[in-house]
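User: I'm putting together a teaching handout on how multi-component assemblies are represented. Below are the sequence lines for each component of a complex, exactly as they appear in our records. Could you produce the 3D structure of the whole assembly as structure tokens, so the students can see both representations side by side? Please keep the chain order the same as the input.
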Amino acid sequence: EVQLLESGGGLVQPGGSLRLSCAASGFTFSIYAMNWVRQAPGKGLEWVSSFSGSDDGTYYVDSVKGRFTISRDNSKNTLYLQMSSLRAEDTAVYYCAKAGSVFLGELSSFDYWGQGTLVTVSS
Amino acid sequence: EIVLTQSPGTLSLSPGERATLSCRASQSVSSRSLAWYQHKPGQPPRLLIYGASSRATGIPDRFSGSGSGTDFTLTISRLEPEDFAVFYCHQYGSSHSFGQGTKLEIK
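Assistant: Of course. Below is the structure of the complete assembly, with chains in the same order as your input.
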């Protein structure tokens, strides 16, 4: 059974930093692209970042480029999102999501999602 | 960036009725790289449809997807009480983007 468990969310002041983790199990983590998607309060889903399963390619939505860094540790089956220079508009539930296809790589639908972790940026 | 526009914003229907949700892209979505998700409060999104028309594992056949290019549709043939939720389309042919969502509510 595929399981994704996010952790690391919490309350942080504007300009601060936070690192999210996503522990994966139930599939061969290293060969799948992995993703972060967020949902701000009362808003829709927004893709944030992807990490390729075939090379070290990383991809970001424009609003987080230069502030967020996605990484993965295949030996620990864990995906990370290092967030810095946080802004109020980064407040959201952050979901970890698995790519649905090894073949399509990072350009794939998301077939499994974690329960999410809440990040609140406020003074 | 491909912008996805979903309509209607809210759809009010009764169990047993047919639901038709629309997703229009600002430019052609390559290789029919379009997915639909169901999202209920307090739960993660659930993949329903990928590749515009392929049902994900375990999804009932009352859910179907169609379309290509810039116009896509999710149809729920006969609504069950558990189907009411927010639905999102997602294009993954050119980076990623989501529509703003359609709320399907009980009439």
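A couple of points students might notice: Chain B has a mean pLDDT of 97. Residues 91 and 97 of chain B are 6 Å apart (CA to CA).
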